[in-house]
Amino acid sequence: MKDNSLLKGALSTLILKLLADNGQMYGYEIIQKIKEASADQMQITEGALYPALHKMEQNGLLKSELRPVSGRTRKYYALSPKGQKATQSKLDQLQGFLSSIQMIIQPKAQ
Amino acid sequence: MKDNSLLKGALSTLILKLLADNGQMYGYEIIQKIKEASADQMQITEGALYPALHKMEQNGLLKSELRPVSGRTRKYYALSPKGQKATQSKLDQLQGFLSSIQMIIQPKAQ
DNA sequence: CGAATATACCTAAAATTCTTAGGCATGAAA
DNA sequence: TTTCATGCCTAAGAATTTTAGGTATATTCG
User: Fold this and answer.
1) Which chain B residues are closer than 8 Å to A3 by Cβ?
2) How does residue B8 score in pLDDT terms, banded at 50, 70 and 90?
3) How many helices (H) and strands (E) does chain B have?
4) How far apart are CA B8 and CA B44, in angstroms?
5) Is any Cβ of chain A less than 8 angstroms from the Cβ of B78?
6) How many angstroms separate the CA atoms of A36 and A43, rounded?
7) Most confident of the following: A19-23, A94-98, A103-107
8) How far apart are CA A60 and CA A56, in angstroms?
9) Per residue in B40-89, pLDDT tens?
10) Which residues of B touch A37 (CB under 8 A)?
C-alpha cells in the first residue's frame, strides 16, 4: 500500500514536456529535474522511469544517443518528429484531466 | 493502449471528496456525478468504481447501506469516521501532486 | 588509502489499478 | 415488446508502478 500512486498515468506526458523544454536529457537527469521542480514532492523511481523511456522510444516518440561524459556513459533522449507532434495533444489532454479533477475537489462556492 | 489512464491514483480521493460534499451516494450516482462535473471529460467505468468502493469499505474508509428505491436496490455509501479523518489529508496530497505537475507542464516564463 | 556516497544505467517479480467485456435484474420509454 | 436507462456485480487481461535487486565509475570524506 503505497501512496505515491498519484503519479500514475502522467509520467509519459511529463517526459515529453521536459524534453520539449530542454532539448535533450538523460534518465538520471529527468529524475532529478522532476524531484526538484516539485519541491521534493514527486519522486520518480528508476524502475518506473527507465521502462517508460524504453517504451516511448520503441513507440517512436523518442530517440536516444549514448554519450560518454567524464568516464560514465549517459543515454541522452530527445523528441523524435513524431514525439514533437504528440507533445501538444498529450499536454492538452493532461490539462483537461487536471481541470476536471479541480472541478470536483475545489471547495464549491454554493 | 488506452488513454483514459490519466485517472490512475486519484479515484479514491475523488470518492472521498464527493461523499464529504454530498453526505451519501450510490455507485451509479458517483459515476454520473463525475461525468457531469467534468463536462463529460472523465468517464469512470463501473469496473473501476465498484472494486474501488469495495476496497475502501474493506479498509474502513466507507460504510454502506442497502436501500430499495422504487423497485431497485441501491447501495448507499458514506464516510466512516476514519474516512472523514482521511479525506483532508488525501485532498492535500492530491492538491500538492497537481501543483507539482502544473509546475512542470506550465509554459515557463523565462 | 579506503569507504561511503553520488552518478548512471538496467531488470524482474510482485502489487496495484484500470479496461474490457461480460452477467443479472427492474423500470420506463419507444 | 424490445430497447434503453438504472443499478449492482465479477473476472481476465493490460498497463503502470513499487520494490528490490544488479553493475560500474567518479567523487568525497575520514
Assistant:
1) 93
2) low
3) 4, 3
4) 11
5) no
6) 9
7) A19-23
8) 6
9) 888 899 999 999 999 999 999 999 999 999 889 999 999 999 999 999 99
10) 100, 103-104
The answer, yes or no, to whether residue A5 has pLDDT greater than 50, is: no
Rounded to the nearest 5 degrees, what angle is found at the Cα of B109, between the Cα atoms of B107 and B110?
A: 125
Looking only at the bridges linking them, the beta strands covering B72-79 and B62-69 are antiparallel
* Residue listed under C-alpha cell 523524435: A80
Asked if A15 and A53 count as a contact pair (C-beta separation under 8 A), the reply is yes
Query: Is the backbone of residue A47 left (phi > 0), alpha (psi -120 to 50) or beta?
Result: alpha
Nearest to A60 by CA among A27, A86, A39, A24: A86
Grid cell, residue A24, equals 535533450
Hey, what domains does chain A have and what are their CATH numbers? 5-105 (1.10.10.10)
Instruction: Considering only the beta carbons, identify the residue of B42, B97, B108 that sits closest to A6.
Output: B97
Q: For residue A41, what pLDDT band results from cuts at 50, 70 and 90?
A: confident
Is the pLDDT reported for residue A102 higher than 50?
yes
